[in-house]
Every structure is written in C-alpha cells, then in structure tokens.
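Task 17 of the worksheet. Students: predict the tertiary structure of the chain below and write it out as structure tokens. Keep your answer in the requested format; marks are given for formatting as well as content.
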Amino acid sequence: MATGALRRTALYELHKAHGAKFGPFAGWDMPLVYADQGALDSHLHTRMYASIFDVSHMLQTRIVGSDRHRFLERLVVADLKELSVGSSTLSLFTNEKGGIEDDTIITQQHDSLYVVSNAGCADKDYAHLQQHAKAMQAQGADVKVQRIEDHSLVALQGPASQRTLERLTGVDLGQMMFMTGCLIDIKGVPCHVTRSGYTGEDGFEISVPADAAVAVTQGLLENPEIKLAGLGARDSLRLEAGLCLYGSDIDSTTTPMEANLVWTIGKRRRVEGGFIGADVILDQVAKKSGQRRRIGLVIEGAPARAHAKVLSPEGEVVGEVTSGVPAPSLGKNIAMAYVKKGYHKKDTPLKVVVRNRMQDAKVVRMPFVPSNYHKI
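Model answer:
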C-alpha cells in the first residue's frame, strides 16, 4: 500500500500499535525502534530470547521451468544443479567487471527456485532477472521469473525461535538444519519457512500470505519471550555476525575475492565458470589478487562510522570503514573496512580517524560474536 512516496508492509498497523518509530528504507516506511525498547534493548533481547523482524520489503521471486538452473547459474555463482531439494545457499549476482550486484539466498524447491534478495536492489534485481529470462526464452528456453507480491516475509531470530514456532506448528523442528527450507502450516496457514536469518542467531524466515501475516505474527508474540524489533537492532546484530550490508560493505565495484566471499562460489563453478564476470572473478581467485580485502576491526575510543579513513601505523591511508557500531554484546566498538592487501591479516595494528583523531584499531576475525546457527 502506498503512503506518499513510501510503501507499507502488511504489518504496518501492528507495528504502529506497538509504538514503532518509523523511518524510510529502500522506499518503505519501516519500523526502527519501539516504544517499550530501543535498539540496544532489542539487540540484547534477540541474543537472549528472540525477536520478530518485518522483512517484507525484501524481494521474493520464484523461478520455474525446466531450464531454471541453467538460467540462474548464468547470473549467480552458486552450484544450483547440485543443491539438494530443501537446501538453501547464499549466492551473489555478479556483473561483467566481476563486481557484486547483490547478495541473495536461494532455496531449491522440488519444482522451482525460491530467491530472496535485498530491498534496496529489488527493482534492479527483478529487471535483471526478467531481462535475462526474456533473452533465454527467445532462444527457446523454458524459464519464467515470478515476483511474489502476495506474501509477507517475517524473520523470527534468537534462541527461543524453535520452541516458539513449534508451538504454532506442532512440528518437531529439531531436524531442520541451518540453511534449509520447507513448507509448514503455522496456525493453519501454509507458509514457506527457511532456517536462516541476518543476526548470527538461530532463527527462521517465514514467507506468509500477506492477508495472514498479522495473525501469524500475533501468534508468535503470544510467547512472552518474543518481541518486535526494528532495523536499528537488525543492523548491529548483523554487523556483530560479520554479515555484509549491500550498498555499504559490498557493491557493484566489489569482487568476491576482495569481499572474502569466494566461499559462495560452488566448486564446479570455479572450474566451469559460466556466470557473468567469471573471467575476472576466477582469475582473481586463482592468483589471490585484488587490491583490497574486507576486514573486521576492533577500535579503541569512539565508534567509527562509514567512510572513516583507515591508516597504517606510519600514517599512510590504507583503507576505509564501510560499517561501524558500538557492539552491545561485546562492549567494544567494531567495524568492517576495506584495506590494501597486506594490511588484512589478523592482529595487524592500524589506526582509524574518528572526529579528526587517530584511534588505535586491530584486525580481528569475523564474526565478532560467534554464530549460533542450528547445525548437526
């Protein structure tokens, strides 16, 4: 539903009833914080119990047809042919220069590929998919891209997620592993559920019919351990988990090698290539080249924000911060940055310029906070 220049999700009135403070994000009016808890409170509550994040602004697509794997493997780096039914994978849309056009989660369904990508790239991604689908269709390929507009997307994240969802499904979710998905009825509503998220915690992303989104969300909120959370907490949680935000930590000029995302490239794809920009990307992988690397930093003093300069101990500018926050779970200031190759190794001492002051920093491994994904 349109409201001026901003769109609203199906949960807008529910957010409003809970005292949400809204702000614009990717063309949507999205909840940032709530009356009963700020971003810090939501962050810590998610780590201890669980929170609900409305992520309905993200793009959901379904790709069908007998040539769907061949089609999408042209656009992303994942090995989709070998992805088992019910399994999900993080992948990257790439461009001719080897840059990342977006990151995406792809789930193999028995008759389709279910693709979730970023709200800020939604129109660009959909146009990209449609353009290439039409080109393949013109050559006789059997493939079709369907934009899913009648479903909301709700993320339930935190240690209490499984037991909360089980109460509404009657299904034992203990055997459902991280990065898998299946169809589950929640309060009698058919939903597509993936065990994934953007917080580093165990949790689920629930694609639910929009007209049932409020009822399902209210059902989850019946557990007193569950609270609504907004974009403020989502950002600090994902940064503690070492997860990239598209447009900040990765963009169309960043290659997988530079972003330390080579692991998203399937083994077969590293041999066969066949995706856009493969010549550039695979050459960098083979030579371990690229001029910069994404790193994690722990910073002394005030928190560093995006675009803060990173310096060598001798004062040479060697990089730039892309995201930074005070980490509530650690009591430290953390950041992601890109630095010249050679300054990216663990424990390398660096400096970060904050408010015209040079502050000590050290390269650390990510995630900053250990992940709690549900694995065997």
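Marker's comment: The domain at 2-56+151-240 is CATH 3.30.1360.120 (Gyrase A; domain 2). Residues 61 and 147 are 5 Å apart (CA to CA).
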